[in-house]
Amino acid sequence: MKLSPFGTWGGLFSTPWEKSFFTLLGEKRTLDWVEHEKIRVDFDEPRIHAALVCAAISCPKLRAEAFTAENLNTQLDDQMLTFLNDRDKNGIDDKGIYLSKIFDWYRDDFNGLQDYLLEYISALSDDPAQKEKVKQQSLNIRFVDYNWILNSIDNR
User: Fold this and answer.
1) What Cα–Cα distance (Å) separates residue 109 from each residue in 41, 88, 93, 134, 147?
2) Distance between CA atoms of 6 and 83, rounded to whole angstroms?
3) Considering the entire predicted model, what is its pTM?
4) What is the pLDDT of residue 3?
5) Cα(114)–Cα(22) distance, rounded to whole angstroms?
6) Three-class SS state of 84
7) Out of 34, 37, 60, 91, which residue is the most buried by the measure of CB atoms under 10 Å away?
């Protein structure tokens, strides 16, 4: 197996997300299957994009605690707010709204991206004028390049 940026999990033409390495519901499964065929399909919950992380620099930050059923709604809200507050990935500037590429890749999951962002406007900006522009949907949205380099002490 060729050593990839993902360590020894990925093969020459695959990523660790495409590798079947565990059994669930009686079948060998991949991480892609868990995310795209189960979680996204069964739960219709856009906040999961701030919770499921790939350990790349552009990913949302990994939560320091486990997600639990009794706290899930609060934890998912907190994850999305934390992600949107990360100015390396999301925010508002003089050119409009800039967002992580995650919002572009999974745009359909957010059922109207600008409307969705209104729920989290406080995380994007403290400026009342900018908030009003978001409400009026008069800001351009652009998506920042995704940095796939893995998070590690060596990359800081």
Assistant:
1) 10, 22, 25, 19, 22
2) 23
3) 0.80
4) 34
5) 38
6) helix
7) 60
